[in-house]
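hiii so my PI (J.) wants the whole complex modelled not just the main chain, which honestly fair. so below is everything: two entries, each one labled with what it is. i double checked the lines twice but i was tired so who knows lol
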Amino acid sequence: MMKKRIAVWILFGAILLAGLVYLVPVVLTVIGSFLLNGKVSGVGYRTLFFHCFPFYRMFWNSVLYAFSVTVGAVLIAIPAAYGFRFAKFPGKNVLYVIYIILMMMPLQVMILPNYIGLRDLKLLNTPFAIIVPLLFSPLAVVVLHQYLRECDVAVVEAARLETNSCLKVIWHCIVPQLKVCIFAVGLLIFAETWNLVEQPLLYLNEDKWRNLSLLFSESERYEAEVLLPAAVLFMVPVLLWYLLFRDELKKGLRLNG
Amino acid sequence: MKKKLSHGTKWNLRCLFCIVPSFLGCALFFLIPYIRVLYYSVINNQFQKKFVGPENYVEVMENEFFQLAMKNSLLLIGIGVPVLMGLSLTLSFLLSFSLRRFSFLRDFFIFPMLVPTAAVVIVWREFFATSETALPIYALFVWKNLGLCIILLTAALTTIDEAVYEAARLDGAKPLRLHLQISIPLIAPTILFTLLLAIMNTFKIFKESFLFYGSKYPPNHSYTLQYYMNNNFQKFDYQSLASASVLTSLLVLVIVLVGLSMQRRVQS
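here's the output for the full assembly
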């Protein structure tokens, strides 16, 4: 018994250590942002706020992309997941497998089709080039549908006696059950969109619509001291979301096939 | 000759209509353009549009940079993915069973999945300044992806009924055997799905590599497919781009279909 307890504590220590190592990159970024030439200093932040004007534009572009994509993708994915669960039609399974394949397709495969679609719709070099393709997230549909499979169906049957509107059924019976999953999916999509690199690089010519990720890839264009403060401000929104929704994130994602 | 739709059919159509917005978007931005990409991959150029058969494919497959990108992807799948899966399985099991009361430790590993790569990459550059291998990229891959794997595996582990373990314990099963013979088979579908996701995420590693090396050209060991794609975008070489996209998508298709059919077999 004693032996077992010691083993548990050693394991606990090892994992705790690993967990702390996991935090190191973030902690060092935060500490580094307040240091200049080895001394504590706020110069980095001051330069960032008062002399690095592209930062504001890039930051707000990131906010615009992340919010519109998250809200839009979730609003489109909920009815789709509902449809996959409750509609009966031939070829449903095939369509669902197509969604899974689309979800797995790496960006490298989709980027040329995407580019062609955007070019034909004359959306290149506009913020819509970034936002619109991301609204149709196969991942969101698949994850929500997986979660929906384990939800209570009787409520929907009961609600059908009251209303003929799919939207009402979704709003009153599906959304409350899916809430945890919706937050988790929303958080994933937000983080992904906040971190975009390839799309703005290829779909946008002008600096005007670039997002904050690109500040770090073209870091030689900016003063060195602003990078770490900018990185800290770049992390803050996602970390806030994480603190608010981490339980949803842990409970809302299930993929059992 | 109009047939009146029954109430049930009408309802079914309404439900079906819910998929339409999502499907139209996917068709407009992924499926239809993909068909055009297929067409691009078999013609000589945009202007003459002469059918050349597999010529573009041969050219792409013989291109040394495409080969290099593929080799690096396969290496990451062969080394990075097993490490990731091993770590995430070990941590999920430990924190769900023997170390259940310390399950808060999970949070340490989960939150990097949300941290934007661009934000930590500066520290990463300092940290791995002298590295001459692809280690920084592999480390970023594990750092970013461990959280999602742990979430998915843990969610599956929590759905296992306690009673199953009680019964096995009464039969005198040791913890390790308990998990090897009960838990692992029970969550096998999820393990497979997680593995599939991890494999697919190796293709996304360009972002990490691109941010780590900046706009500079990366060393060979960290060259990824996206660099090849970007170069061809700049050259407007749509034929190579299209063929490379199609080849990669076929590879992914094979992996996904094998994964899904294995999963189906495991489930039944």
